[in-house]
Fold this protein.
Amino acid sequence: MADPLRIGIIGAGANTRSMHIPGFQAIDGVEAVTIANRTPESAQRVADEFGVPRIAKRWQDVIEDDAVDAVCIGTWPYLHAEATIAALSAGKHVLTEARMAMNLDEAKQMLAAAGSKPDLVAQIVPAPFTLEYDATAQRLLRELGQVRQVRLVHVGGAAADPTSPLTWRQRTDLSGHNIMTMGIMFETAQRWLGQGVDVDWVQADATTVIDERPTAIGQGRAPVTIPDSLNFIGRYNNGAQLLGHFSCVASGFPVWHLDIQCSSGSILFDVTESKLYLTHTGGTPEPVSPDSGTAIGWRVEQDFVDSIRDGKPVTLTSFADGVRYMDFTDKVWASILRDR
């Protein structure tokens, strides 16, 4: 029997606890062996919950541990680049949570570090909403002809209460240039449109409706440094138009979807319903089931392990594709700054 694959965990947030640790522990011959979190106490609680044998007081200790073969980085974006580059330099495989990095420059540094270690696996956790429908959506787009317009919409009131505490998603020092769910929605569209289809330019308008909030620790108030309302228009290099509308402080009926208009019809994915709809030109929307045998669902941890053990190419999501979506993220951010 092959030696066990030993995983070190850096950052034990909600997704790490709900998906990554259980996902790794469900795979034969894979062990989560150590955890570092924001405090040793919180790391110990997670270790006790999942039966992980030890904790590390610093995230660097996980990387320096000779008993660790691969690192899962589940922190907020502020640490993704530093921890990823350190882990690759130490000869560890890396699975990092999305968003890939704070900005495009960090993402490029991560890609370069991965390129210098071709024997190591470097993978980003993919946008998860459409995993069961991706192959179906890609097929439909091939059948519907020329892509004319891509529209990304997520409007709701998740942060509409001004008394709700400031979160990491509202702080540039922790989240960088990532704005609400813009990046995860753009990544999904990028996956559907395929390689080589990227945004040439974008013009954005953003505002911060609620510009300060109580701190998470309940001591005073702090500024919100990431917009809570965003609109943009752009153009892909294939000529298709890109439209975006995002707000987390909106009242009224919430809307969360991705739709792509083509010359012979359109597809729309409703994230809230987790349903894909097809509309032929002149017709009415009809729900579409995933093509037979393509509804893979969540298998992030298994894919990571398969890439390490069997050399399976990383597709969901590669560092190269992460750089593509971070390039778009920085284009939006630069446009916002130009107009301020």
User: Anything to note?
Assistant: Residues 89 and 113 are 8 Å apart (CA to CA). The first helix runs from residue 14 to 25.
